[in-house]
Amino acid sequence: MLNVFTLVNGRLFQEEIESLEDLARFRPIWVDMESPTPEERRWVRQHFGLSIPEDAMDEDIEESARFFEEDNGELHVRSDFLIDDEDGPRHVRVAFILNDRNAELNSHGVLFSIHDEDLPVFRLLRLRARRMPGLIDDAKDVLLALFDTDVEYCADILEGIHDDLEHISTQVLSGLLTDDVAQQVLAAIARHEDLSGRIRRDMMDTRRAISFLMRMRLLSAEQFEDARQILRDIDSLEGHTSFLFDKINFLMDATIGFININQNKIIKIFSVASVALLPPTLIASIYGMNFQFMPELEWKLGYPFALVLMLLSAVGPMWYFRRRGWLK
After folding, report:
1. Do 107 and 98 contact (CB within 8 A), yes or no?
2. CB 3 within 8 Å of CB 127
């Protein structure tokens, strides 16, 4: 899919592109390619003189492979954006290409983005840029706005995690935590821990990308200040994620503690039962020895007497344990 955006009266407008001729009719500031076809790649290469690398979305983590400038002045930035939907949280690699130095190419002043999935951050920015005039002035504003929107998206997810943890905390600290509920709680805590870790990784990646743009000295004074504000927002989110990690660890330990208590109760019941059955076992063993001179052998009520004696020897310890509170 090839999404082309032009700037009209301070607003982003999406143009429909169905051929190379359609692409040549517009002067965009942002060309967004979602899983581009070979034909769409060819259109971009022919019109803008931009060759999209085959490894544009590789999973390399080295800074030299993710943030660099080509000899022709093209700036390459590879950054990860978070998606949290019904399929589960995941990162999507986005490759940005920006030519802000070589005015001889048609790609000058155009931001190119390549990714495999539709991203909520991109949808949100498109919606804002259509409704808020003056939000975008050039391609660098688009790039900074995407990173800023990504930070806001992560902040909203963190707020949702905090609300869910408050609900989980109420369940855990109520003291009425059954094994089934504990299993659900542990699954929810594990998901929030994974999501919080992904947000922290996303923020770290965004920080690296913003720092690279600031070092390249391409930003205007206003854009440089916007970049610094994004970094300050990231610092505040990192502190919040640390708080959530501490809360997650506490709830995890508390839940596991309640599970251990429930298991100990079961083990205690078995232990008490085994102790209570020791005297009847002893009596049954004695009467099973068939001694010749035991008076009960010739007594008609000997067998019922032994059964009653075994019952009393079992009930007696249970009554004593309950009176001492050991069965509660």
Report:
1. no
2. no
Q: Centre a 10 Å sphere on the Cβ of residue 137 and count the other Cβ atoms it contains.
A: 14
What are the strands of the beta sheet with 74-85, ordered from one edge?
11-15, 2-8, 30-34, 111-115, 88-99, 74-85, 67-69
Tell me the pTM.
Answer: 0.77
Band (pLDDT 50/70/90 cuts) for residue 292 is: low
Which tokens go with 280? 């009847």
Phi-psi region of 115 (alpha: psi -120 to 50; beta: other; left: phi over 0): beta
CA 166, CA 156: separation in Å to the nearest integer? 16
> In whole angstroms, what is the distance from residue 46 CA to residue 25 CA?
14
What band does 19 get if pLDDT is binned at 50, 70 and 90? confident
- The least confident of 51-55, 62-66, 300-304 is 62-66
Q: What is the pLDDT of residue 315?
A: 81
Residue 10 to residue 54: CA distance in whole angstroms = 34
Yes or no: say if 96 and 112 are a contact pair by the CB < 8 Å rule. yes
Alpha helices (H) in 174-301, listed in sequence order: 179-215, 221-276, 278-287
